[in-house]
Structures are given as structure tokens and as C-alpha cells.
Amino acid sequence: MRNTTTIKTLLSVLFSALALTACGGGGSDNSAALAALSAAGRTSPTQGATAPQAGSGNTDPAPTDGGEAPADTTPSVLVIAHRGSTGYLPEHTFGGYELAVKLGADYIEPDLQFTQDGELVAMHDDTLNRTTNVATLFAARNGGYKVSDFTLAEIKTLTVVPTGTAATTYPGFTPSSADPYRVPTFQEVITLAKSLSTTAKRKVGIYPEAKQSDVAMEDKILSTLVANGYGAASSKVFIQSFSDTTISSLHTKQLAQKTEMPLILLGVALTDPDGTAKFKVISGSLGTLTLAQVKAFADGIAPAINYDSYGYPITKDFITQAHAAGLKVHGWTFAKADATAAAAEYKKYLDMGMDGMFSNYADLAVASRDAFLKAGATQ
Ligand code: G3P
Ligand code: CA
């Protein structure tokens, strides 16, 4: 029998690998996670049944944030623009977010990092070099290019570059911004969402992710949202984190400041041998929580898709139990570029009852979501 330290080490390796795999913007290569799971000696449970069912429904009342944006006509299943239009344009950019809305996304997703001078910027990595031209403009600091070692003014001189299947242009699309591939601040993402809501004549949501488990980041996210009119449970915003510590803390802080913005815990789906659905935490406690425990501080869960072979399958029964516990289920990350393969993947999870999908290709997600809802409406 392994001792506690060994098990914690294995879990740490495993979930680091899972997070790294999640970080792969355009692909679905799970080899790092697979290697870690193999090292940890996990077995792979069988995938559950996938009989069709209707979407779970978004019954939020009219939003109060912003005040001037159009009425909320959000469909019952959400398309969340993962890092913007990661499959088409440079991730986490004005151009990428704008294209995603043009392609029909309901929410735009900024991952958030702190600059050296305490500003929140939209950036997935805690370093600048994978997605920007920083190395051509600045020498490394402290052995690398950590976001937190650069000021906002410095980061604003950078250009975000395409990765994976992305390019610098998209057919038929001209970004509104004259400088669409700079690193946006969180405030600029919010301002953009409100502007795009007016242009698109529908309310565009935001889905910020605290990329560090950091109380200062929690405070800055909350204060920025409140300053922009968000706060009610019906606000078109979800705050997400891989850390249960962070989400639990955000819940406590919201109780104190009397706001109710929905909170989503990221992780992986786990089903006990007796069929009980649970949720495995990737950062923070690294524990396994019952769905009731999650519901005590969160409004939904966002499990990784396609982790069946590692022992973390999302099944129809898993989602049914999550809904029974009062939790929304948003899956990440839908990254298939091929339209036929993508449609099959979306349908698989929509048929299980998934409530939202983080997608690199918003148009493909919208097409599948709309077809699913239309089929359900005619049954
Ligand atoms: O937040 C959902 C999804 O974006 C998680 O993956 O690594 O791209 O932030 P990541
Ligand atoms: Ca994210």
C-alpha cells in the first residue's frame, strides 16, 4: 500500500499533466495525462450510456449588469468561446473574442493573469513566450518570461501570435479594433463584451478564469466585475477556477459583499464503483468532492471531456446526478477542427445533457447546439 506522500505525489503529477493537456489550445493529445495515470496505476472504467435527452435549460432571469445591453436571449445550452477563437485567430485577443461572437458564441472566456504592477490581463499561460513575440523585444527576466515579471505597459507593446490551427486572418472578417492582437486587460474584455452586445443585438456573457489560486486575484476579479455592474445571480457571467480553494473563497467573499455571480469549479468527472458521481479537483485540495460538497460553494462543474480512458468519463448518468444536485455541467475543451468529427463529439455530450461547451471553433459548436435544440423542440 502506498503511503500518503507517494499518493499525493502521484496525484500532483497526474493533475499537472491533466492541466497541461487542458492547456493545449488546438489539439486533443492526452499523452502526458495518460503517462501520469499509467504511473499512478489507475484503471479505466467503462463509458456510460448516451441516450438522447433535452438540454437542461438556462432559467436565469433578465440580467442586471450593464443596463444598456440588449435583452438576454441566451439558449438553454451555452457555447463558450474558449480563449476567444483559439482555432482561428490568436488566443485571448480583441480580434479572437470579436470573431467568436460573430460566429455565435454566447460567452467569451478570458483566462486571467496578474502583471507585475497588479493589473489583470487575458492570458492563459503564466508566461508570455508561447503566445506573444516577447522574446523578440525583451530579454528574459529571472530566467524566463513570466507575466508577473512584466508591467502592463510592457505587455501592451507585445503582439499575440497564432498557435495551433490559428492564423492572423479569418476569411470575411475584419476586426473592429485597429490593433486587434494586443494583450487585453480584463477591463478591456468586459468593455468589449458590452460593445459586442450592442453590435450583435444580444447579450454577450463573460466567463473569467482565475489562473492563479491567489486571494488578491479573487479580490481583483470581484471588484472589477462589481465596478462594471455585475453581481446578481442573473448577471451574464461565470467565474471559474481549477482550485476548489479559490471557488470556495469566492463564494465566501460573495456572501459577505452580497453578490451572487455564478461560480464554476473545473476538474474531472469521477464515478464511484457504486455509481455515485463525484468531482475530482485538479488544483487546490486535490481532493475528491461529493456533488453536494461542490454545491455548497459552486453553481456548476466543468469537467474535462474525453478522459474516459483515464478513469474520468463524463456519462449521461454523471450529468443527471449533477443536475439533481443543482449543478450546471460545462465541458472543456471541444477542440476538433474537422466539422464532421466535431459534430459527432458535440452530439455525444449534448445527448448526455451537457449545459455548456468550451469550444475553440465557436461556429462548429453553435451549429451542433442549434441542431440539437431544434431536434429537441420538434420531438
Ligand atoms: O476553463 C476551461 C478551460 O479553458 C480549461 O482549460 O487550460 O484552456 O484554461 P484551459
Ligand atoms: Ca480557461
Helix-strand blueprint:
Elements lengths: L3 H20 L7 H10 L37 E4 L12 H9 L4 E2 L2 E4 L5 E3 L11 H4 L14 H4 L30 H15 L4 E2 L2 E2 L4 H13 L11 E3 L2 H14 L5 E9 L5 E5 L6 E3 H5 L4 E4 L12 H9 L3 E7 L4 H14 L3 E4 L2 H16 L2
Parallel strand pairs: 1-2, 1-13, 2-5, 3-6, 7-8, 8-11, 11-12, 12-13
Antiparallel strand pairs: 3-4, 8-9, 9-10
Helix pairs in contact: 1-2, 3-6, 7-8, 11-12
The structure holds SN-glycerol-3-phosphate and calcium ion (CA).
Structural description of this entry:
The chain has 379 residues and is of the alpha/beta class. It has one domain (54-377): Phosphatidylinositol (PI) phosphodiesterase (TIM Barrel), CATH 3.20.20.190. 35% of the residues lie in helices and 14% in strands. The protein is built from 12 helices and 13 strands. Strands 1, 2, 5, 7, 8, 9, 10, 11, 12 and 13 form a 10-stranded mixed sheet that branches. The longest helix has 20 residues, at 4-23. The radius of gyration is 20 Å and the shape is globular. The termini are far apart. Mean pLDDT is 86; it is low at 1-64. The structure holds SN-glycerol-3-phosphate and calcium ion. Calcium ion binds at residues 109, 111, 209.
Q: Can you give me a brief rundown of this structure?
A:
With 379 residues, this protein is of the alpha/beta class.
Number of helices: 12
Named CATH topology: TIM Barrel
Mean pLDDT, rounded to whole units?
86
Give the SSE string. Answer: HHEHEEEHHHEEHEHEEEHEHEHEH
Shape: globular
